Amino acid sequence: MSAWLKVCPLEEIPPLGARVVKTSRGDVAVFRNAADEVFAVDDRCPHKGGPLSQGIVAGKRVTCPLHGMHIALDSGEAVAPDRGCTHRYAARVDNGTVLIQLG
Questions:
Q1: For the chain, how are helix, strand and coil distributed in percent, rounded to 5?
Q2: Is it the case that residue 97 has pLDDT exceeding 90?
Q3: Which of 6, 47, 54, 59 has its CA at a distance of 20 to 30 angstroms from the CA of residue 72?
């Protein structure tokens, strides 16, 4: 199991917003929803590679800013009728700090 990577304090990610983390695997978008839950997925929409980090967050979903595809943040799967998926990473908050697991 891979180690957890510290991203930032939770307060540095706006509610219903995202922060991009540069990794050796590419850009990872780390989202915070209205309930202060955090999620991490590759910052690429499976449809045309749009930057999910610039999308609109609602509940546990993000809408791609390019073509409106909806992605479930807790699975990385497109929401029907859309199809496709983006890689999801484990994410959590520990003592106010957001962490993701890249392994």
A1: 5, 50, 45
A2: yes
A3: 6
Break the chain into its structural domains and give their ranges: 4-101
Q: In degrees rounded to 5, what are phi and psi of residue 56?
A: -95, 125
What mean pLDDT, rounded, does the chain reach?
94
Q: How many angstroms separate the CA atoms of 43 and 62, rounded? A: 11
CA distances from 60 to 2, 3, 39, 74, 77 (A): 25, 25, 8, 7, 11
Q: Give the pLDDT of residue 103.
A: 77
Task: Quote the pTM value.
Answer: 0.94
The answer to whether the beta carbons of residues 97 and 5 sit under 8 Å apart is: no
